[in-house]
TrEMBL record:
Name of the molecule in the record: Ribosomal RNA small subunit methyltransferase G
Organism of provenance: Uruburuella testudinis
Protein location: Cytoplasm
Stretches assigned to coiled coil: none
Highest classification ranks of the organism: Bacteria, Pseudomonadati, Pseudomonadota, Betaproteobacteria, Neisseriales
Function: Specifically methylates the N7 position of guanine in position 527 of 16S rRNA.
EC number: 2.1.1.170
UniProt family annotation: Belongs to the methyltransferase superfamily. RNA methyltransferase RsmG family.
Record flagged with keyword Transmembrane helix: no
Span of the signal peptide: none
């Protein structure tokens, strides 16, 4: 099965309906990741087939959780996960990709240009220093423990904003150490096609 079929099959299993153009952009993104990976060390994965499942399909588990959002920030975006696949599928969603590693933000800028993603802005720097932007959703994939993630990013949420943290195994200990002014709205177990590892989405919001 080639990558195109693998992507189509995965999308079908996840109940996602994307245009041919969007599917081609996702595959183009994977090709860019592979091309730049040798220089910029963006991912430990080396083959495109694994990148389709572990990066693209994994990132797209975010889509149902940002259904009503207009703005999103992907903190510690690295190689652009989950921000870039989300941006391809949601051209109406304004997305900021933030990373403190300038090599990675150089790649992100290039990817945004080559993929023609007019809804994406790339920001280079530390999350604590980002003060000019408030968003509906702050997300991250394996960026930090939940308590640290919250304390580092709470200034980025707008008045009705919330966090969508992408985690591996169920984070019992991290949830137990959450600050008292934050509510865990839900923790959903996710199914990612071709990925034999646990994945969970943790939705949190400030207690208002």
């Amino acid at each position: 099965m080639d990558n195109k079929q693998k992507l189509q099959q995965g999308l079908q299993q996840m109940g996602l309906s994307l245009s041919t153009a969007q599917q081609l952009l996702l595959l183009e993104y994977v090709a860019l990741l592979k091309k730049w990976n040798n220089t910029y060390n963006l991912t430990a994965l080396r083959d495109e087939a694994s990148m389709v499942s572990h990066h693209v399909l994994d990132s797209l588990t975010l889509l149902p959780y940002v259904a009503g959002a207009q703005t999103l920030m992907d903190v510690g975006s690295g190689g652009g996960m989950p921000g870039i696949p989300t941006a391809i599928c949601r051209p109406d969603l304004q997305i900021t990709l933030l990373d403190s590693n300038t090599k990675k933000t150089t790649f992100l800028q290039q990817a945004v240009i080559e993929l023609g993603l007019g809804n994406v802005t790339v920001a280079s720097g530390r999350v604590e220093a980002m003060h000019d932007k408030k968003v509906d959703v702050v997300t991250s994939r394996a960026f930090a423990e939940l308590a640290d993630f919250i304390s580092l990013t709470k200034h980025l949420l707008n008045e009705n904003g919330y966090w969508a943290a992408m985690k591996g195994v169920y984070p019992y200990e991290e949830i137990a150490q959450m600050p008292p002014n934050v509510a865990v709205v839900k923790v959903d177990k996710l199914a990612v096609p071709e990925l034999n590892a646990e994945r969970h989405m943790v939705i949190m919001q400030p207690k208002r």
